[in-house]
Prior knowledge:
By secondary structure, this protein is of the alpha/beta class. It has helices at 17-29, 57-61, 76-79, 98-115, 148-159, 186-191, 212-216, 235-243, 265-268, 284-299; strands spanning 5-10, 34-38, 48-51, 67-70, 90-92, 141-144, 164-168, 177-181, 195-198, 222-226, 247-252, 272-274. It is built from 10 helices and 12 strands. A 7-stranded parallel beta sheet has the order 8-7-6-9-10-11-12. A 5-stranded parallel beta sheet has the order 2-1-3-4-5, with helices on one face. The site of NADPH dihydro-nicotinamide-adenine-dinucleotide phosphate has 30 residues, from helix 5 and strand 7.
Amino acid sequence: xxxxxxxxxxxxxxxxxxxxxxxxxxxxxxxxxxxxxxxxxxxxxxxxxxxxxxxxxxxxxxxxxxxxxxxxxxxxxxxxxxxxxxxxxxxxxxxxxxxxxxxxxxxxxxxxxxxxxxxxxxxxxxxxxxxxxxxxxxxxxxxxxxxxxxxxxxxxxxxxxxxxxxxxxxxxxxxxxxxxxxxxxxxxxxxxxxxxxxxxxxxxxxxxxxxxxxxxxxxxxxxxxxxxxxxxxxxxxxxxxxxxxxxxxxxxxxxxxxxxxxxxxxxxxxxxxxxxxxxxxxxxxxxxxxxxxxxxxxxxxxxxxxxxxxxxxxxxx
Length: 317
Ligand code: NDP
Ligand code: OXD
């Protein structure tokens, strides 16, 4: 009998213990005999690791890892981790149930913005049966990043009849979504966007992308919804453009520093809605299933780079 594959689980705030049972079950269903251990700093000779912001020493202590699974979509903090072996393949989650929740979050805020729904709640709720209803042409939604998540956001906004455009590195074909690709077309993309949704990964190329110059290319009165990463946006430039009236509002789920410090201006700005990085929580069962199926394929000899979710370190996502 072959001995079970040892898998270290180090999920920090996602609570490793709550993942062990779904991972074990998913591996059993995928036909992999696996032994999962919550990683506590002692070497367990793991062949794989399932991690979210793990202690960096995991990579120097567990020297026999064949691949590491990131229990989320964004890998920028993992890639910056000291001690991460250069050749260790990294696999990230692809959608795994996060994308529909993020599309729901984005469409919820789009509806609040375009229909003025905030008028009707809270202590100063408008009690006017004849309140204004939007009847004009709906604003154009522009999605930055048309990957596993951005594409579903774009499709969801299309479903509600918004004109939708998307920006990515390479051109895309998504029904009803106008595709803009590459830095050379970003200005044109922004100029025609009234509600900008940021669903980009954080890389050397996207860091500080939305600065004063880029945000000023949006038409006056535009809104921003950021579900990608905080450091793709220059906060001070956003605040200056909100104060100047060029931008009408921002909904921010992700921040340069998380948790967002209590004294940060973003918490208190009247035109900013802050949510605590909750638009796309990783659902355990679908994520465990995706990881287990990948492990099964690796155990059958597949090359990590052939699997969906393989992180291209040169691109940074
Ligand atoms: P993908 O890798 O599937 O998609 C990334 C998209 O961004 C691709 O369309 C890619 O273009 C595009 N892109 C990357 N770099 C550039 C660039 N320099 N110029 C133009 N386009 C670029 O990632 P996901 O959709 O799975 O996830 C996106 C991000 O969402 C994650 O990295 C993470 O930061 C964030 N996230 C946030 C969550 C939350 O709760 N707020 C939850 C989950 C994820 P191309 O297709 O041409 O390669
Ligand atoms: C992710 C996230 O990247 O939750 O998965 O932000």
